[in-house]
Amino acid sequence: MRIGLTSGDPNGIGIETVLQVFADERMLNGLTPVLYASPDLISSNLDAIGLKDLNWGEVDSAEKAIQGQLNILNISVDSFSHLPGELTSEAGGYSYKSLEKAVDDLASSKVDILITAPINKEAITQSGFKFPGHTEYLAHMANAEDVLMFLVAESLRIGIVTGHIALKDVAKSLNAKSIKSKLDIMHESLARDFGCPTPRIAILGLNPHAGDNGLMGDEERKIISPVVKEANASGMKVFGPYAADGFFGSGAYKNFDGVLAMYHDQGLAPFKAMSFGRGVNFTAGLPIVRTSPDHGTGFDIAGQGIASPDSMRSAIFLAQDIHKNRLEHRELTANPLELAPPKRDYRDSRR
What we know:
It contains twelve helices and twelve strands. It is α/β, with parallel strands linked by helices. Helix 1 (about 15-25) links the parallel strand 1 and strand 2.
């Protein structure tokens, strides 16, 4: 399997976590990694973190990537200075170019899956990037009507209805259509990407105590509960809305295959507290497989060799698993008539 990895912000910890992952040559078994970066940046990171034994080499196209080494596809960025921990527009341009090239190769099937290292949104915006994050950019590039930010750590899977928007805008952004859309994507992803044929999904409320029957907001009663009722009528197994604090505090999340949160921090705060640095951000609803470590650029520790590669490693493993699950799901759900051999004409050819 050929995997594409973006550089993320080159002044952050993305590159060094990739290098640490593939310093363990067992990670190269069955994988051909292609990292979209420049050889100079690789050498600079290797020196900074004191990593000497790494099997890597430069290639001029993903199709020529060599199994058994970390392949560096030079993105040819001019006049870039590696400044660990610094926010610069040049670094933003570098991360944008790495992402563009990796997505192009993914779209043309030169790589099978995509793992994106963390970007700094302020830096990449300065280079002309017009999206709140990777999720929205990939949705735009794939012409997807809707996608789901899906946080995964083993059996803990949390999706988000409203993503990268201000907290003050969350309530007015919620409606039955948007919740139902995210729920449908989660349900399909759990079946296709995670092998859960009849997934059980919990939905969280928006307000404290899930609104307390309207005492602290009526979004649960007017918007969320009707979606739950409609989903169950259609054959899904959906439960809620639950008060988020008690739901996670009591361990109730363990009874479900997926959890749908209403806004970013409602899902990510408990997720990151429980995933112990091995969480993965997966974009569900895309025709391609993309994952990312669940941490940020780590400017405060960049270049010191102390960044943990655990989340990056988990992102690679999860992307592999999802890719394989999709192939198996496609085979299991294929129309057997389409796979049947063509009918033969048994008439006597001597006539």
